[in-house]
Amino acid sequence: MLTTLESHKYLRQHSIKPSVQRTAVMDYLMNNRTHPTIDEIYLALCPNMPTLSKTTVYNTLDIFVERGAVRALVIDEKNARYDIDVSAHAHFICRSCGKVHDIFNLKSELFEFPKLSRFSINAVEISYSGICDKCKGN
Which residues, in sequence order, are CB contacts of 32 under 8 Å at separation 6+? Predict the structure, then answer.
């Protein structure tokens, strides 16, 4: 389990001032690499932080994404999900259980930005969907 000290260090590396709320959200993300939604983060933290609001979680995640500390995933049609791992990798979402899995063994060329004169590309997102082995019964 990662510590609050490690969260503070990570936040500072991304030029984010570590407030109590920001540290709590980062602690959660670092220790729960499940690609959580805002609701999941809020529900996990609010029992120990009764003054925490869902708006604070939302605003905190916006700052994290803006500064490159986390990545927002839009692979779930219902909710944005958040990934602490900002390295180049793809995702698979199971349409049965909703769990999101990281996929790291893709060719690195897939994550390179194509040279297109009409566009200025600054991000690549690759995602797959289907049914995971657990839900298939394998």
Answer: 44
Higher pLDDT, 4 or 26: 26
Rounded to two decimals, what is the model's pTM?
A: 0.87
Work out the angle at residue 7's Cα, subtended by the Cα atoms of residues 74 and 71, and round it to the nearest 5 degrees: 15
Domain 4-81: CATH class, spelled out: mainly alpha
Q: In this model, does residue 120 exceed pLDDT 70?
A: yes
CA dihedral 70, 72, 76, 77 (to 10 degrees): 160
Residue in the structure block whose two tokens are 């390179």: 112
pLDDT at residue 68 tops 80: yes
Give the list of residues 6+ apart from residue 76 with CB closer than 8 angstroms, or none. Answer: 37, 93, 98, 100
User: To the nearest whole number, what is the mean pLDDT of the chain?
Assistant: 91
CATH code linked to domain 87-136: 3.30.1490.190
**Domains in the chain: boundaries:** 4-81, 87-136
Do 72 and 80 form a contact (C-beta atoms < 8 A)? yes
Q: What is the pLDDT of residue 1?
A: 72
